[in-house]
Each structure stands twice: as C-alpha cells, then as structure tokens.
C-alpha cells in the first residue's frame, strides 16, 4: 500500500518526537531506507516541506519573508521580527529578507498565510486608482 | 489652455493628493499552484470564504477571481478575465469582499460586460453604488401578488398568455424560432410604460448582440435599456456571473420602487458554462454531466424577480428567461428545471413557424400562471373567450376538409377560428399598442371581421387601426389611459369599425 506525502511526513514527525540527536539520526536513516525500498524517493521534496509545516505548527514557529527596496539595518529587522511575533502569536520567527528594487520603498512582510503590504509601489497604485475615480 | 484653468487643475490635484489616506492592512495571501482553462488552484489563503473575491497580482495588473471550491489545502477559484497572464507561483490576495458590480442610473443606455466595464466604446461607467452579484431573494412577507400588466405588444401573448409585473415567464423553443424576437419586441414596447429594461446576452454571437443593440437604438429603446453582454468567446466564468450581474443591476431600480424587465438570453448556455466550470473544478457530474446543483443555479436567479409590496417600495422585476430546446424536447433536464421554477411558459412550435404563423406561439401548451389578473379590464373583456375559441378551432380544424358536409354552426366556428389565427400573426419589430389590440379583438370576437376575406385580415387590421386613429382617437386614448371599456366606448368602436368597412371594397358578400 502506497502512503501519501502527508502520511510519510506525519510518520517522520511522530517518530522524531521526544528523541535526542543520536536517536533522530537513526530514525532518519531508517526512514530514508524505507523510501528507497518502496521507490518513493521522488516524493522526498514534498515530504520535507510538509514536515517543516508540521514542525512549525507544533512548535509555533512562523516563517516570515521581508522584502525591502534596499538593505534594512539590524534594528529595523529586529522590530519587524517583534511585530510578526506579536501579530501571529508565535513563539519564534524565522526571518528571511530579500531585496527588490521594484517595490520602490517601504516594506512587504509575508508571514504564514498573511501579507502586510506597506510598499511604496502599492501606495502609488492606490493613489492612482483614487484619483481616477 | 489659459493659466487660470491650469492653476485650477493643479490646485485640484494637490487637494486630492493631500486628502489621500491609505492604510496598509494585513491581507490573506496565497500562491497559484496550478492555472489553466479559466480555473486556478491556490495554496495558502487559509481563512478565505466561499464566493469571496480574490486578486491575482500579475505583471500586467490585477485580475480578479471568485472562490468556488474550498479544499483541505488548496482553494479553487474561477478567473474573471483572461487567465493567460497568470503564472504558477503568482501571488494571490483575498479582498474580503464578495463579488460586486457597479449599478446605477449611469448604466441605462449602455452596453456593459458582466463586471460593469463599458463595451460600447463610450466612457467608462462611473458607478455610485456597488451591489453584490449574489443576493438572497426577498422573503414572503415583502412580496405582493402580481396585478399590473407588462404589455409585450405581441397580440397572441397579451390576449391569451398575459404577463404581469413581477412574473417570470419562460420563452422556450427550438433554435431560430423567434425566442429573442419576442423578447426584443417586448422591450421595444416598453416605451412610455415606465419600465426599465435589461437584456442579458449569455454566450450569444457578438454579431447578434450588435444587431440587437442597433435595432433597439433604432426603435428608441436604448433610452431605457441596459445590455449586459457576455459573448461566446468570453471565459465561462463571465458567462456564469452574467445573469446574476444583470439581476443585481435590476435590483438597484427595484429598491428605488421602479419596475424592471429583465431578459436572460439564454439560460441553456448559462447552464452549459456552469457545467464547464464545475467539471474543471472536479465536482462530480450528474445527469447529462450537469453538476448536482444546476437547479439551484437557476432557482436562486429567478427567485430574485418579484413584486414588492408598498412597505418595501412597490417595485418589481419581471423576467423573461429564454431556454433553447433540442427538437422540441420539453422533457430534457434543463427545460424541466426552469419550467418548474417560472410562473408560466411561452412555447414556440416548429410546425407553426413553418406554416407561417409567426410568432409561432403554441396557445395550447403555453401557460401564464398569473393569467387575467395581469390584464387591463378592457383586454380581459374582449379577449376572455379568445383562448377558448382558438382551442375549439384547433379541435375542428381536422374537419375542415369536409367543407360541404358540415352544419352551419361548425362552419361558422371554423371561419372565425381562421380569422383569429390570421390576427395572431404579427411582423417583427412591430409591437401593437394595447388600445389597438382591444380594437382588433373587439372586432373579431363580435363577428365584425367575419365578412373580411381571410387572406386580407392583416391588411384590414392595419387599415382599421389607421382609420380609428383618425376618427375615434378620443375613445382609443381613453382605453389606453383608463384600461376600461365602457358601454359608450364599445358603441364608439362598433361605429368606427362599421364606418371603416363601408370604405372598403373587398368584403365578402353574404348570400343568404
């Protein structure tokens, strides 16, 4: 019987609960062997991403992406991290920042399923729409 | 441009920019996992609601979509526009609004697409209000029974299958039989009747819609008509929302207490586009591959047509949905569905059409469940027996070949019936006003046309109308205004008919 991506990820997650590093290494090795045996290695990418989803949900971690027009200094990044932690009520936040000149200024914060668009480009578009009417 | 105007414009712009407030707000977002055939599967968007509007952010601007499927870890949405600009991985944002269309007086006289964008080459529509496309129909307490007539101008319909304001009357028949023609004549005849009209073209050829708009323009009907057009080449999502958008535009006038006539041309194509969307959204197919809720698709649309009582404005929406049957099969899935929803049907028969009886209305099977409650008193008086006489004629027509072997009474019924059938014939784009219809039916039912040769009945009718227009103008006007046919009016009509006949030379001599 072939298991789905979600079932594999859930199994791996359940197995890695409450174990120390050495035990987890063994679990992973066995798991990889299982995948090879059942010819399911192609599913590995999706299993890994679903696993991170389960892990984050369990440990209340939120992945956030911050897009800015130019590099932000550390203090600002820390403030944004605090904001995201507060608004999503997570215990921990993983921030990845990228630069995109196209947003012209301001910042776009993506976390979980939400997006907070405070970019200059969006504001200018809204102004354009407002004036047109 | 003088300096003053330039400064003024700059001042206005500055003021508008200063007063501009924009708050960044938090929105739900997701990513497109799969897109194609007018459908997109989106991941994320965990708290989006059913029928919520989504905004697809593409390189060329925003395209809107509507959520129709909520799955465990994805959302299925239909794309309201060209899906070619959307790529896999594109960002999608939930707008927290249900699908709305612009409504208002600005829409009268315009041709728009289901989202309210102008299609007639004139300026963009500036709407003061937006109404939701999907709405729950008015409840029982807010309604009132149908009492006022909708004069379609088509003699056969106004006499025997009268339509009232707030009624849903289905026009059903095969292809190329005159369904749209009846609807268009009804719209043209609403001139001066204090009605707004909305013609919703679903999946029609663009050339056909262009012809219709030109004809309405010619007849002066565009002054009170809005055309909502979702052509055959538009994506199925636009065809799906077109009738709901048309109804939303009608509801604006309904809320103001006005009367509206809405024509849905046609709902068969609407059901087909909904089937297309449902199959692409992987919903299980049922009978004839239509999804399970295809009845609900039409019932929620047609229930919004109603007559409201005084406490709620007293307005009404009358709808004329059109259904195309295949080879006259009334027992197919969609026709039976819509017949059970509407308050009657006008059935157009192929046989009548080929015999030259146009409009090819089949009096026997056509029904109006509102009936004479929706007729002016004058019409009720003269046309009360017409349906029965037409039915009796049909029964006897088989004996017509035994011409010489019949008794006088039967012969007389046959002759009367033949004249009646001739009177029902009518040209396209030539609706007849109610007072002229009363005059004609008065003549026929009182035997005053029995000595006119059958093949010259139509000629006699128009001659009579013209003559009466000159010599009995006041009588006709009083019938038109009051809707009553008094004793005095009857005498006046009798006199004018006799006078008109005296001027003619082709009457049959009675040889007793």
Q: What does it look like?
A:
The complex is a heterodimer of chains A (133) and B (512). Chain A is α+β, with helices and mostly antiparallel strands and 133 residues long. Chain A folds into two domains: 5-58, no CATH class; 61-132, Glutaredoxin, CATH 3.40.30. In chain A, 53% of the residues lie in helices and 21% in strands. Chain A has helices at 5-15, 21-37, 44-58, 74-88, 120-132, and strands at residues 61-68, 92-99, 106-111, 114-119. In chain A, a hairpin with a 2-residue loop joins strand 3 and strand 4. Chain B is α/β, with parallel strands linked by helices and 512 residues long. The longest helix of chain B is centred in the middle third of the chain and has 20 residues, at 236-255. Chain B starts with a helix and ends in a 10-residue tail after the last helix. The interface between A and B is medium-sized, with 16 and 19 residues.
Summarize the structure.
With 133 residues, chain A is α+β, with helices and mostly antiparallel strands. Chain A is built from 5 helices and 4 strands, in the order H-H-H-E-H-E-E-E-H.
Indicate the proportion of strand residues of chain A: 15-25%
Helix content of chain B: 25-40%
Number of helices of chain A: 5
Oligomer: heterodimer
Fourth-level CATH superfamily of the largest domain in chain B: P-loop containing nucleotide triphosphate hydrolases
Instruction: Please name the CATH topology of the largest domain in chain A.
Output: Glutaredoxin
Low-confidence stretches of chain A: none
**CATH class wording of the largest domain in chain B:** Alpha Beta
**Largest sheet, strands/sense/barrel of chain B:** 8 strands, mixed
Features:
heterodimer; A: alpha+beta; 2 domains; 4 strands; B: 512 residues; alpha/beta; Elongation Factor Tu (Ef-tu), domain 3; Rossmann fold; Lysin; 3 domains; six-stranded antiparallel barrel; 16 helices; 37% helix
């Amino acid at each position: 019987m072939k298991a789905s991506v979600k079932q594999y990820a859930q199994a791996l997650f359940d197995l890695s609960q409450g174990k120390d590093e050495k035990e987890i290494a063994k679990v992973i090795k066995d798991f990889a062997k299982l995948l090879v045996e059942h010819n399911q290695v192609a599913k590995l990418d999706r299993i890994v991403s679903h696993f991170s989803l389960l892990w984050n949900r369990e440990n209340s971690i939120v992945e956030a992406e911050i897009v800015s027009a130019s590099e932000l200094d550390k203090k600002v990044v820390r403030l944004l991290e605090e904001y995201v932690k507060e608004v999503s009520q997570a215990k921990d936040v993983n921030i990845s920042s990228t630069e995109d000149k196209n947003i012209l200024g301001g910042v776009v914060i993506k976390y979980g399923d939400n997006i907070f668009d405070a970019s200059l480009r969006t504001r200018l578009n809204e102004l354009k729409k407002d004036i047109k009417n | 441009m003088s300096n003053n105007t330039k400064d003024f414009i700059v001042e206005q712009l500055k003021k508008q920019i200063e007063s501009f407030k924009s708050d960044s707000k938090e929105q739900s977002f997701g990513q497109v996992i799969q897109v194609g055939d007018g459908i997109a599967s989106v991941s994320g968007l965990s708290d989006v609601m059913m029928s919520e509007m989504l905004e697809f952010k593409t390189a060329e601007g925003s395209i809107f979509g509507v959520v129709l499927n909520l799955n465990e870890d994805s959302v299925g949405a239909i794309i309201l526009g060209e899906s070619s600009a959307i790529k896999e991985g594109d960002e999608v944002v939930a707008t927290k609004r249900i699908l709305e269309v612009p409504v208002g007086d600005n829409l009268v006289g315009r041709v728009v697409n289901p989202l309210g964008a102008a299609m007639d080459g004139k300026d963009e529509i500036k709407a003061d209000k937006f109404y939701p496309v999907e709405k729950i129909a008015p409840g029982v307490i807010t309604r009132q029974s149908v009492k006022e007539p909708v004069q379609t101008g088509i003699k056969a319909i106004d006499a025997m299958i009268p339509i009232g304001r707030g009624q849903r009357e289905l026009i059903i028949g095969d292809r190329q039989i005159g369904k749209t023609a009846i609807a268009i004549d009804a719209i043209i005849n609403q001139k001066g009747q204090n009605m707004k009209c909305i013609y919703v073209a679903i999946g029609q050829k663009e050339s056909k819609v262009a012809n219709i708009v030109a004809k309405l323009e010619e007849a002066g009907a565009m002054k009170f008509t809005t055309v909502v057009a979702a052509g055959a080449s538009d994506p199925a999502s636009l065809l799906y929302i077109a009738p709901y958008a048309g109804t939303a535009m009608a509801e604006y006038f309904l809320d103001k207490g006005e009367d509206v006539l809405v024509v849905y041309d046609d709902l068969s194509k609407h059901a087909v586009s909904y089937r297309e969307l449902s199959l692409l959204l992987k919903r299980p197919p049922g009978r004839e591959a239509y999804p399970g809720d295809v009845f609900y698709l039409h019932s929620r649309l047609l229930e919004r047509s109603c007559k409201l009582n005084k406490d709620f404005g007293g307005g009404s929406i009358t709808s004329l949905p059109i259904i195309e049957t295949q080879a006259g099969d009334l027992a197919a899935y969609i026709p039976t569905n819509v017949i059970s929803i509407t308050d009657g049907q006008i059935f157009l028969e192929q046989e009548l059409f080929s015999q030259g009886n146009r409009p090819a209305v089949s009096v026997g099977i056509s029904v109006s469940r509102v009936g004479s409650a929706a007729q002016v008193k004058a019409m009720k008086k003269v046309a009360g027996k017409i349906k029965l006489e037409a039915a009796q004629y049909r029964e006897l027509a088989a004996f017509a070949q035994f011409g010489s072997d019949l008794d006088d009474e039967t012969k007389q019924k046959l002759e009367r019936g033949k004249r009646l059938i001739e009177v029902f014939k009518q040209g396209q784009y030539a609706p007849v006003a109610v007072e002229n219809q009363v005059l004609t039916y008065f003549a026929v039912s009182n035997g005053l046309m029995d000595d006119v040769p059958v093949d010259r009945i139509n000629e006699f009718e128009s001659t009579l109308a013209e003559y009466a227009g000159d010599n009995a103008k006041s009588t006709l006007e009083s019938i038109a205004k009051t809707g009553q046919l008094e004793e005095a009016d009857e005498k006046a009509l009798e006199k004018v008919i006799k006078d008109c006949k005296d001027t003619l030379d082709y009457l049959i001599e009675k040889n007793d």
